[in-house]
C-alpha cells in the first residue's frame, strides 16, 4: 500500500512524495494493536546510507513476516522524505487517523493532502483493486524510526543516537528508551548517544566546576566509603552537556525528528540514527551491521509485542543526562518550586508594605501629600498598576500576532521582516500609551507595579510549567532574578556605594539578558562561538520556526516573558515622584 | 434372594421383560447418534484448512432425559434446565482472512467467528424470564468450559437484537468477549463432550502443539433443541494451519515454490488409525476449490495434471450447482476402512505451481477508528466491492445489494447515532437514500450497551462505501476498570450480513442411510456473513497506584497529627517546670571546679535564663567535640 502526499511549492505544478507501507498481520493476534517501523529515505536522491537503512528495514520486515510469535501487527512505513521526514510521516499518520472520505478534497490549496494508491504484500495473488485501499492495522502501540546516518570517521564501534523529544517537550515513555538502550549496549554492542552540546564538552569553566565536585566527592568518600558522591570530571562534563541539550530541546518545543508526529497521536516513538564506523563499500562490515541493527530492531519489536498494556505510569517527565541516566520529575520540580515559591510572598510583602506604611516611608520620598493619595485611591490603588499590566499584556498579544500578518508581505529579507516587526511593535506601544496613558504619567507606585508584575509572572510561570516544564525552568532562571532585583534607578541613588553598584550591575545585566533577541544573540554566540551582526534576521527566522511548529515557547516568550521585561524596564525607569503636572491640576 | 417368594420373583421377571421391550422399541424408532467428520482444504496462501465436525443427537423422549448412551449428559441437563431452543458458543483465536481464505462458502459464513468468545442463545421461555435465565446460563457455561463467560452476565455485556443478527421474537440474547484468551483449557472440556474424547477416531488427530500453532483456531458448539427432533449438538473445530514441509521449516514466499504439498501427518503430526467405535459414520473429506477444478479441466479424478492425492478416495462428490458448470469437488474417505496397521494419511501433492483464489464475499467489510485523544473519536465501517455481483447476476448497474449491519457498542463508548454519515465513492449521501430500515437501542450508562441494526441498500455500481459514527469516550468509576485497563477497551466485532447471497452448497445424496452430517450443515442456512475487526479504544485510565500513594500520605499526616496531639495532651507543664528548676540548681562540674580554684564560694545561681544558655552552649561544644573526634578518627583510620 502506498500513500501519496502532494506538496505544492507554487500553484503551477505538483510534486508527489510516495510513502510505501507494508503491513504484517500477526498470525494469532486479534489485530487490535500495531507496532510501526519507519525508515525515512529521499526518493529523489538516494544516498548509500539511506539504501542501507532501507535494506535494514526490509530485512527486519521480511524476518518478522515469518515470525509466529507476533501478537501485534507490524506496519513498516518507508517515508519519502524529499519534503522532510516529519511531513511525510505526519501526513501518513493524519490519513491513518483522520481520513477524508470525500474523493475531491475540498481543501486543495492546503500544502499537503493524502491520497491512496496501491501495493501491498509480497504475495502476487491479491488483486489490484484491493491494493488501492488504505490499509490499517489497529491502534498503534509504539513506533520506532531508524535510519543510517553518515559514517563516523574516528569511531571504534558503530554508534546509535537516540532522539526522543517531541513537540512542546513531550517525551516518550522512558521504558521505551531503556529498552532500546539496554538492547543496543548490552546485546548488540552499539555505542548509544543522546544529543549533546559539543561546545559545553570542551568548555573550561565546566571542567573547573567538575574538578571541584570531584575533589569534594573524593574527600567525602574518604570520610565514609559508603557515600558514593564523587563524579569523575568527564562524566560530569558529559552529563551536563547532555542535560543542557535535553533541556534545550524540550524547551524549544520543536520535535527533534519524525517521532514527534507520533507523539501528536499519543504514540510513544523514538528515533534511532545509526552512525556506522565503517566505510559503506565494505560488504562484510555492512552485513554484520545489518545483522546487529536487525537484531536490535527485532529486540525492540519483541519487547513491545510482549506487552499486554501500552506504556503507562508517570515516566513521561524527565531530562536525560546520559542514554541510561535521567532526572525524574520528582527531582527537577524542586528547584523550580523553590524559585517560584518566594514570588507570591514578595508580591504580598510589597503590596502590603505599600498599603500600611503609605507613601511617606517609601524610599522614593515622594513629595506629594499622603492623605490626598489615601483619599484618592485608598486600598484600590493596585487597580492602577493592574491597568498598566493589562495594557502591556494587550500589547504583547498584538506583538505575538504581528508576524502572521507581516509574513504575508511577499519577497522580503528576514531582516526586513524583523525591522518591520520591531517598528510596528514600538508604534503600537506608543499608540496604546497615548490612548490609555503611560505608566510613568499614571502615577503608579513602583512597589505596586513590581508586586503586580511578580504576581503575573507567578501565574504565567505556573501555567507554563504545566505546558512545557523545560521552558518554564529556563525562563525562570532569567526572569525571576530580573524581577526580584528590579528597583527604580532613582531609588538606588540613596544607597551606599557597594550595594548600589552590585544592584545596578545586576539590573542592567539581567535586563539585557531578559530581552528575547539579546538572549538569543548571547545563546547563539555561546553555542556557535561566532558573533554575527545578522542577529535580527536570525531572530525573525527563529521566531518563524517556533511559529511554524506551533511551539508553546513562542507563546511563553510573547505572553509571559516580554510583558514582564517591559514592566521591569518601567520599574527601573520609574520617576519615583508623583508627576508634578498632575499635582498641579489638582 | 433365594428366599424371595415366587410371586415377587415373577413380578421382577415381568418388569425386566417390560424394560427390555421398551428399550427395543426405542432402538427401533430412533436412537442417540454420533458422527465424526473432517474436512481438509488447501488455501491459496500456502496454508491448509481443517474443519472437524462432530454431531451428537438425542431423540426427543421424555423418559430418555436421564440416561444417555453417547449423548453428553451435561448438555442435556443444560437444555432442560434453561429451556434453550438454540445456542451457539464459539472460542476463537486469530482472524479469518476474508480476502485470502474466501468469504462466500459455508466455511467462512458459518465458521469464521470474531476473536474471543461469542455466545448467543434463543430461549423457549416467557419474555420476562429470559434475562434471568441468560445470567444463569452464562455461569453454567463458564463452569462447563473453563472460560470467563460469566462476564456476559452483566446487563452491560449482552444485547437483544431483533433482526440484525438473526430473526427472532425477542427471545434471543447475544454477547461477545473479544479479550478472552483461548487455549487447551477450553478445548479439554469441549472434548469431554465427545464419546471417545480424543482417544480414538478423528478427534485423536487433535495434537495440541500443532493445532494451537495455527493461524486461525475456532472451536464452536452449536446446540439446537426442539420437541420434534430432540437435541442436536454440532461441535466443530476450524483450524488454519501452515503445513511443515519435510525439512521442518515453513515455506515462505521467497523460497520459490508456490504451494506446499502436505498430508495429515504434516498438519497434525498424527495419522488416522480408525474410527471412534460408537460413531455411526466417520469420514474425511478433501475439498478442492472451484477455481482449481476450473483449471484442471473437466475430469475430476484424484490424480490429474495439477495434483495427486496420497490415497485413492472412496467416493468423489461434486457440488450441485445450477448457476455454474464447474463447482468444487469433494474426495471422500471412509475411516472405518482403515486401522492401526493401515492408517489413513490423506494428503495432496502439487505437480504444477498454481495460483488460485477463493470466492470473496460481495463486499469486504473493514472497521477502524478515527481521531485521537481521550475525548472523542469516530467508528468507520468501510465496504469495498469485490464485484461478485457481476459474476453472479451479470453486468447490470442499476441493481442494489442489501447489507445488514449489526453492531454492539459498550456504554462507555457513547455513540451519537444521529451523526451517521454515509459516503459512497467519495460522495456524501443522504441516509434516507441508502438505509431501508434501522433499529437503534441507545446505550444507558452502566446499564445497557448500545445496539445498532441497520439494513442498507448499496448500489451495485459502487466501488467503496464508508459509514461513520461519532462517539464520546466516557469515564468509568475506579472499580469498573477491568484488569490491564491501560491496554484500552474493546469494541466487539460488527457483523455484516448479505441476505441476498446464499453460500449453501448441496451435494448429491447417494444413500439416505449414511448421509453426511457435515454436508447437511453446508446445505442449511448459508446467508453470507462477515465479521469485522475488533477495535481497541484507549480510554482515560487513572494511575492505579495513586490510591496507594494517597493512603500512605494520609496515614503519615494522621500519624503526625495524633502523635503531636497525644504528646501535647499527656504533657504536664507544671511538672516540667519544676524539673527544669531542679536541673538549674544542679551546677555543672567544670564551673564548680573553676569556682573552687578561684577560691570563691559557690553561691546559688541567679534566677534567669543564664544557666540554660550556659547549658546549651556547653551542649553545643560537646556535640562539636564529639563530631570532630569522630571525623578525624574516620579520616585517619581510612587513610
From TrEMBL, chain A:
GO CC aspect terms: GPI-anchor transamidase complex
Residue stretches spanning the membrane: 329-351, 388-406, 418-436, 501-523, 553-573
Coiled coil: none
Alphabetic keyword roster: Membrane, Transmembrane, Transmembrane helix
GO BP field: attachment of GPI anchor to protein
Name under which the protein is recorded: Glycosylphosphatidylinositol anchor attachment 1 protein
TrEMBL record, chain B:
Stored InterPro entries: PIG-T
A GO BP annotation: attachment of GPI anchor to protein
UniProt KW keywords: Membrane, Signal, Transmembrane, Transmembrane helix
Transmembrane region(s): 548-569, 619-636
A GO CC annotation given for this chain: GPI-anchor transamidase complex
Signal peptide positions (record): 1-28
This protein's record includes keyword Transferase: no
UniProt-recorded name of the protein: GPI transamidase component PIG-T
Amino acid at each position: 500500500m502506498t500513500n501519496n502526499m502532494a506538496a505544492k511549492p507554487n500553484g503551477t505544478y505538483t510534486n508527489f512524495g510516495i510513502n510505501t507501507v507494508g503491513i504484517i498481520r500477526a498470525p494469532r493476534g486479534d489485530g487490535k494493536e500495531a507496532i510501526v517501523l519507519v525508515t525515512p529515505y529521499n526518493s529523489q536522491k538516494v544516498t548509500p546510507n539511506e539504501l542501507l537503512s532501507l535494506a535494514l528495514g526490509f530485512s527486519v520486515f521480511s524476518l518478522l513476516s515469518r515470525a509466529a510469535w507476533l501478537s501485534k501487527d507490524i506496519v513498516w512505513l518507508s517515508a519519502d522524505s524529499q519534503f522532510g521526514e516529519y511531513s511525510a510521516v505526519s501526513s501518513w499518520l493524519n490519513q491513518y487517523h483522520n481520513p477524508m472520505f470525500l474523493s475531491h478534497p475540498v481543501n486543495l490549496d492546503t500544502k499537503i493532502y493524502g491520497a491512496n494508491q496501491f501495493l501491498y504484500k509480497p504475495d502476487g495473488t491479491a488483486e489490484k483493486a484491493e491494493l488501492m485501499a488504505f490499509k490499517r492495522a489497529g491502534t498503534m502501540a509504539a513506533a520506532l524510526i531508524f535510519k543510517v546516518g553518515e559514517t563516523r570517521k574516528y569511531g571504534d564501534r558503530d554508534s546509535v543516537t537516540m532522539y526522543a523529544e517531541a513537540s512542546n517537550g513531550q517525551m516518550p515513555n522512558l521504558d521505551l528508551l531503556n529498552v532500546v538502550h539496554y538492547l543496543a549496549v548490552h546485546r548488540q554492542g552499539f555505542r548509544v548517544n543522546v544529543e549533546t552540546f559539543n561546545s559545553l564538552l570542551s568548555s573550561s569553566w565546566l571542567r573547573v566546576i567538575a574538578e571541584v565536585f570531584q575533589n569534594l566527592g573524593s574527600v567525602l568518600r574518604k570520610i565514609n566509603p559508603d557515600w558514593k558522591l564523587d563524579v569523575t570530571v568527564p562524566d560530569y562534563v558529559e552529563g551536563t552537556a547532555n542535560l543542557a541539550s535535553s533541556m534545550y530541546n524540550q524547551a524549544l518545543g520543536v520535535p527533534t525528528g519524525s517521532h514527534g508526529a507520533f507523539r501528536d497521536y499519543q504514540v510513544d516513538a523514538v528515533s534511532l540514527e545509526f552512525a556506522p564506523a565503517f566505510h559503506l563499500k565494505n560488504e562484510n562490515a555492512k552485513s554484520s551491521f545489518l545483522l546487529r541493527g536487525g537484531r536490535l530492531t527485532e529486540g525492540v519489536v519483541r519487547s513491545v509485542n510482549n506487552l499486554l498494556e501500552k506504556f503507562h505510569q508517570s515516566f513521561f517527565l524527565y531530562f536525560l543526562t546520559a542514554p541510561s541516566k535521567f532526572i525524574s520529575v520528582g527531582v527537577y520540580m524542586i528547584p523550580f518550586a523553590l524559585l517560584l515559591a518566594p514570588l507570591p510572598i514578595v508580591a504580598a510583602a510589597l503590596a502590603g508594605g505599600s498599603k500600611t506604611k503609605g507613601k511617606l516611608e517609601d524610599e522614593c520620598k515622594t513629595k506629594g501629600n499622603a492623605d490626598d493619595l489615601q483619599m484618592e485611591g485608598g486600598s484600590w490603588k493596585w487597580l492602577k498598576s493592574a491597568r498598566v499590566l493589562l495594557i502591556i499584556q494587550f500589547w504583547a498579544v498584538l506583538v505575538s500576532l504581528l508576524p502572521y500578518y507581516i509574513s504575508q508581505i511577499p519577497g522580503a529579507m528576514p531582516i526586513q521582516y524583523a525591522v518591520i516587526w520591531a517598528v510596528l511593535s514600538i508604534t503600537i506601544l506608543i499608540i496604546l500609551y497615548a490612548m490609555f496613558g503611560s505608566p510613568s504619567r499614571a502615577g503608579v507606585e513602583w512597589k505596586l507595579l513590581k508586586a503586580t508584575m511578580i504576581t503575573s509572572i507567578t501565574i504565567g510561570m505556573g501555567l507554563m510549567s504545566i505546558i512545557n516544564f523545560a521552558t518554564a525552568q529556563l525562563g525562570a532562571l532569567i526572569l525571576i532574578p530580573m524581577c526580584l532585583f528590579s528597583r527604580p534607578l532613582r531609588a538606588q541613588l540613596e544607597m551606599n556605594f557597594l550595594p548600589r553598584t552590585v544592584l545596578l550591575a545586576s539590573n542592567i545585566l539581567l535586563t539585557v539578558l531578559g530581552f528575547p533577541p539579546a538572549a538569543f544573540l548571547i545563546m547563539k554566540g555561546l553555542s556557535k562561538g561566532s558573533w554575527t551582526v545578522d542577529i535580527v534576521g536570525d531572530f525573525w527566522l527563529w521566531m518563524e520556526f517556533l511559529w511554524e511548529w506551533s511551539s508553546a515557547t513562542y507563546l511563553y516568550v510573547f505572553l509571559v516573558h516580554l510583558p514582564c521585561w517591559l514592566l521591569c524596564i518601567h520599574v527601573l525607569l520609574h520617576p519615583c515622584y508623583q508627576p508634578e503636572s498632575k499635582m498641579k491640576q489638582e | 434372594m433365594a428366599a424371595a417368594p415366587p410371586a415377587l420373583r415373577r413380578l421382577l421377571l415381568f418388569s425386566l421383560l417390560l424394560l427390555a421391550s421398551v428399550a427395543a422399541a426405542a432402538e427401533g424408532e430412533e436412537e442417540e447418534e454420533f458422527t465424526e467428520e473432517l474436512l481438509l482444504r488447501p488455501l491459496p496462501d500456502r496454508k491448509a484448512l481443517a474443519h472437524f465436525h462432530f454431531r451428537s443427537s438425542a431423540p426427543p423422549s421424555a423418559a430418555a432425559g436421564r440416561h444417555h448412551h453417547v449423548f453428553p449428559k451435561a448438555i442435556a441437563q443444560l437444555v432442560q434446565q434453561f429451556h434453550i431452543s438454540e445456542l451457539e458458543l464459539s472460542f476463537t483465536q486469530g482472524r479469518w482472512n476474508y480476502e485470502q481464505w474466501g468469504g462466500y462458502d459455508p466455511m467462512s459464513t458459518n465458521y469464521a467467528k470474531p476473536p474471543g468468545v461469542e455466545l448467543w442463545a434463543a430461549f423457549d421461555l416467557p419474555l420476562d424470564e429470559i434475562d434471568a435465565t441468560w445470567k444463569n446460563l452464562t455461569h453454567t457455561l463458564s463452569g462447563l468450559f473453563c472460560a470467563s463467560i460469566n462476564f456476559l452476565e452483566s446487563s452491560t455485556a449482552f444485547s437483544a437484537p431483533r433482526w440484525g443478527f438473526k430473526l427472532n421474537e425477542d427471545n434471543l440474547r447475544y454477547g461477545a468477549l473479544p479479550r478472552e484468551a483461548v487455549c487447551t483449557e477450553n478445548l479439554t472440556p469441549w472434548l469431554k463432550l465427545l464419546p471417545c474424547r480424543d482417544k480414538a477416531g478423528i478427534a485423536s488427530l487433535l495434537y495440541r502443539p500443532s493445532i494451537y500453532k495455527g493461524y486461525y483456531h475456532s472451536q464452536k458448539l452449536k446446540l439446537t433443541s426442539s420437541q420434534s427432533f430432540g437435541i442436536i449438538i454440532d461441535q466443530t473445530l476450524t483450524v488454519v494451519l501452515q503445513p511443515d514441509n519435510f525439512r521442518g521449516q515453513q515455506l515462505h514466499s521467497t523460497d520459490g515454490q508456490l504451494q506446499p504439498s502436505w498430508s495429515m501427518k504434516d498438519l497434525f503430526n498424527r495419522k488416522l488409525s480408525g474410527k471412534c467405535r460408537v460413531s455411526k459414520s466417520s469420514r474425511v473429506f478433501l475439498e478442492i476449490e472451484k477455481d482449481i477444478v476450473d483449471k484442471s479441466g473437466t475430469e475430476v479424478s484424484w490424480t490429474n495434471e495439477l495434483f495427486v492425492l496420497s490415497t485413492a478416495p472412496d467416493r468423489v462428490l461434486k457440488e450441485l450447482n445450477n448457476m455454474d458448470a464447474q463447482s468444487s469437488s469433494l474426495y471422500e474417505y471412509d475411516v472405518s476402512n482403515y486401522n492401526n496397521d493401515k492408517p489413513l494419511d490423506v494428503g495432496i501433492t502439487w505437480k504444477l505451481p498454481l495460483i488460485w483464489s477463493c470466492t470473496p464475499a460481495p463486499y469486504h467489510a473493514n472497521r477502524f477508528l478515527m481521531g485521537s485523544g481521550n475525548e472523542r473519536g469516530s467508528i468507520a465501517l468501510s465496504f469495498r466491492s469485490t464485484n461478485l455481483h457481476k459474476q453472479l447476476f451479470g453486468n447490470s448497474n442499476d441493481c442494489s445489494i442489501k447489507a445488514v449491519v449489526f453492531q454492539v457498542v459498550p456504554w462507555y463508548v457513547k455513540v451519537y447515532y444521529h451523526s451517521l454519515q454515509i459516503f459512497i465513492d467519495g460522495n456524501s449521501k443522504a441516509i434516507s437514500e441508502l438505509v431501508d430500515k434501522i433499529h437503534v437501542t441507545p446505550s444507558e450508562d452502566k446499564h445497557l450497551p448500545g445496539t445498532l441494526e441497520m439494513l442498507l441498500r448499496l448500489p451495485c455500481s459502487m466501488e467503496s462505501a464508508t459509514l461513520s459514527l461519532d462517539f464520546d469516550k466516557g469515564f468509568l468509576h475506579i472499580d469498573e476498570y477491568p484488569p490491564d485497563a491501560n491496554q484500552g477497551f474493546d469494541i466487539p466485532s460488527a457483523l455484516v450480513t448479505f441476505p441476498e447471497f446464499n453460500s449453501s452448497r448441496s451435494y448429491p445424496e447417494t444413500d439416505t442411510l449414511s448421509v453426511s452430517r457435515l454436508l447437511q450443515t453446508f446445505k442449511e442456512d448459508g446467508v453470507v456473513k462477515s465479521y469485522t475487526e475488533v477495535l481497541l479504544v484507549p480510554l482515560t485510565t487513572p494511575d492505579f497506584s495513586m490510591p496507594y500513594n494517597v493512603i500512605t500520605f494520609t496515614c503519615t499526616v494522621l500519624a503526625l497529627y495524633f502523635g503531636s496531639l497525644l504528646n501535647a495532651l499527656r504533657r504536664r507543664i507544671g511538672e516540667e517546670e519544676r524539673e527544669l528548676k531542679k536541673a538549674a540548681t544542679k551546677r555543672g562540674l567544670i564551673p564548680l571546679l573553676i569556682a573552687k580554684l578561684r577560691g570563691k564560694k559557690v553561691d546559688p545561681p541567679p534566677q534567669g535564663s543564664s544557666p540554660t544558655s550556659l547549658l546549651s552552649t556547653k551542649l553545643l561544644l560537646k556535640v562539636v567535640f564529639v563530631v570532630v573526634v569522630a571525623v578525624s578518627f574516620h579520616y585517619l583510620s581510612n587513610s
